[in-house]
Amino acid sequence: MVWTLLQKYSMMFIQFVSGIILARLLTPHDYGCIGMLSIFMVLAETFIDGGFGSALIQKKKPTQEDYSTIFYWNLGMAVLMYVILFFSAPAIARFYDISLLSDVLRVQGLVLFIYAFNIVQRNQLKKKLNFKVLSIVTITTSIIALGVTIFMAYKGFGVWALVAQNLITAAIPAIVFWFFIKWRPIWTFSWKSFKELFSFGFYMFLTHLVNHFGQQIQGLLIGKVYNSSTMGYYSKAHGVEKLVSNSISKVMTEVTYPLYAEVQDNKAMMINMIKRLTTTLSYLTFPLMFIMILLAKPVFVLLYSERWLASVPYFQVLCVAGLPNCLQAINLQTISAIGKSKTMFLWTLLKRGIGVLAIVGGLVLWGMKGLLVGVTINSWFSYLVNIGLVSKHIGYKWTQQLKDLFPITAVSVLAAVVGFVIGYLIKGNMYLNGLLMLVVFLVIYIGWSVVFKPESYTYFLTIIPAKLRFWERKKHKL
Predict the structure, then answer these.
(1) Which domain, by its residues, includes 81?
(2) Domain-located, residue 124
(3) pLDDT digits (tens, 9 = 90+) for 444-465
(4) CA-only gyration radius of the chain, Å
(5) SS3 of 392-432
């Protein structure tokens, strides 16, 4: 957890710095071009992994034949996916009416080979909970990639700077893992291993495929109906929202899946883990999301300049959609860990189908505003389905889950409303107004925590070393 914490927060800091600098060197059009192609890259990567990465982690004792079989499968699928993207690139460029996208997709598609080359090594490290190596390599790679990207953006390479960033980010870990990890594939492809892993991995693959399509469909629609600049504003808003909503959840959920797999036969322990993660994450993340909704305008102007003001309303709505997203992985991982991959796929098909209808319907009826409402409906409906699955298969009832979340959600909403009203009545400088709303929110939220001492608050205190809790030191001295 400590190494994952270091990795994720270092990555967030690097992304934060990168966003500030590149937002001034690149245009919304540059970001929009990459955003338009993201759905094709994500789906291609999903085909390459095929759910076998999760299957290798879920299997308690994978063999050398298992690893080698999946390694060759990944490489074969990478070749197939790149060929498809290469010859489809001109058609995709015509679809968006931006000729540059053809060359961009063909070059960025090289990431697929790199991705396939080190999936097995990454999963071996995760299986062994060796997050130290993952963290060091990831942080170092991001710093190098950031330096190259900033240099290229400054020299006027535009969208190609972002393409280079993606290639470098993929290439360096692949090289390091190959030489650091002693594992090498043997010259065998075991159909027995493939079928065994396929029985679990196939439905995981379908689940990831449907999930990624449902999550990326808005980018496809925005790029087609509007223009690259609008797509750029949305991409920036979406990227910042993900940075906030995943700031804490990614740290915990990166570690928990292998742990869930180890205790998959102990439902009582799993229920306790889910409850602790859910309440702790919501206690920390929900107020952060509401604060960002309140401070969206001054934050975007201060960090990214007034050029990106059009991203603010997109960002605020996406923060509402991001509230359940920070908790999604907790529930999905438990269902995956107990081997219910087929059940996950069938329910994913339902929830994403309804989500896509909401997004498309919203776009048709109310344009961009309707699309954002559809994205929000998609997120919250998916979360309700996920907690329903946990309720049925793990035993942590959905009513209890919502009950555990209610106090945190209610106080966060109350603090945000009071902060907004006070900020609205006392109109002044944008930054001073934002500071006032922040202070009001924190006073209400922290005051509630100290006075009523909810379980999430008391548990959070137990994971902070006593030497860092200044109020305990002060009490001890007295």
Answers:
(1) 1-202
(2) yes
(3) 999 999 999 998 888 777 766 5
(4) 23
(5) HHCCCCHHHHHHHHHHHHHHHHHHHHHHHHHHHHCCCCHHH
